[in-house]
Specification:
The protein has eleven helices and twelve strands. It is an alpha+beta fold.
Length: about 280
């Protein structure tokens, strides 16, 4: 079986195979506040040629492979420290600790859809995760996740968040949260319908919104609980007018529902011991 993982980062599609970056497509943006925060090499991306920017994107992913085992059998899965002040994994890990939710349906490279109730796994998976569009099953990753008490949806690296929500309900969870990639094709309407069909509370977090189309924006507005604006002016223009709460002034996170408010209630970055200078570095 081929080892192929496809992620979207800085608007480029990156193919990773056998622990190497095989391909980086042409990016369609020249600035990303999150990339600037996490990767020093992309701090000054404006004015770079396409070739230069692609080289920096490649280097950022290669560093992730080397340091964290991204898309390899050496993937580091346990983390109890914040990386992004208002990241999805940080908020979800907090939600598990505060009992606002009892499970998270997320996506992990090398495993696909994963159901977990362990905050450190949510953070370990998500702290350095990009938009995962496709992943191959890596047995060692799945074994480690199961040892931590997680449920891996299948043995093929399938990404199916709706099926993950169904599996969470089968496991007896009643207050699940699910991450949905806005750039993908997973139906938010179908995910929301599961809440009633399964008799559970479901909090839908929409991530990776850069470059989405109008129909996807309409769906997000109607069915999402919390949305990351990323590099989408359309998200800012539309959701900024109806949000109940805004987290972060750098790359706004919009809390659209009471369910979303319950998840983030009491959350601040320093709950994880994040230093104030780290918070400030996102803005500087």
């Amino acid at each position: 079986m081929k080892d192929i993982h496809i992620v979207r980062y800085f608007s480029s599609l990156i193919t990773i195979s056998n622990g190497k970056v095989a391909k980086v497509t042409k990016p369609t943006i020249s600035y990303c506040p999150l990339a600037r925060f996490l990767y020093g090499g992309i701090k000054e991306s404006a004015g770079l040629s396409t070739a230069q920017l692609k080289a920096k994107i490649r280097k950022a992913i290669e560093e992730k492979i080397t340091r964290y085992g991204f898309c390899t059998k050496d993937r580091i899965l346990w983390k109890d420290e914040a990386v992004i002040p208002y990241g999805a994994s940080e908020i979800l890990a907090y939600g598990l600790k505060s009992k606002a939710i009892d499970s998270v349906v997320t996506v992990c490279d090398g495993a696909g859809t994963v159901i977990t109730a362990v905050p450190q796994i949510v953070q370990g998976i998500g702290a350095r995760m990009h938009t995962m569009l496709k992943t191959s099953h890596i047995p060692e990753v799945a074994i480690k996740l199961r040892r931590y008490g997680c449920h891996v949806l299948d043995e093929k690296g399938l990404i199916n968040q709706a099926a993950g929500v169904v599996e969470a309900a089968k496991k007896g969870y009643k207050k699940a949260a699910v991450t949905v990639n806005a750039f993908g094709e997973e139906s938010l309407e179908n995910a929301r319908a599961l809440e009633c069909n399964l008799g559970i509370s479901l909090t839908i977090l929409v991530i990776c919104t850069t470059g989405i189309k109008e129909n996807r924006l309409n769906e997000i507005e109607k069915y999402a609980d919390i949305v990351w604006s990323c590099n989408s002016n359309d998200i800012r223009d539309r959701l900024g007018k109806k949000t109940l709460e805004v987290l972060s002034n750098v790359s706004p996170v919009y809390v659209l529902t009471e369910n979303g408010k319950r998840l983030v209630s009491g959350y601040t970055p320093n709950i994880f011991g994040m230093r104030k200078e780290i918070e400030r570095s996102v803005v500087s």
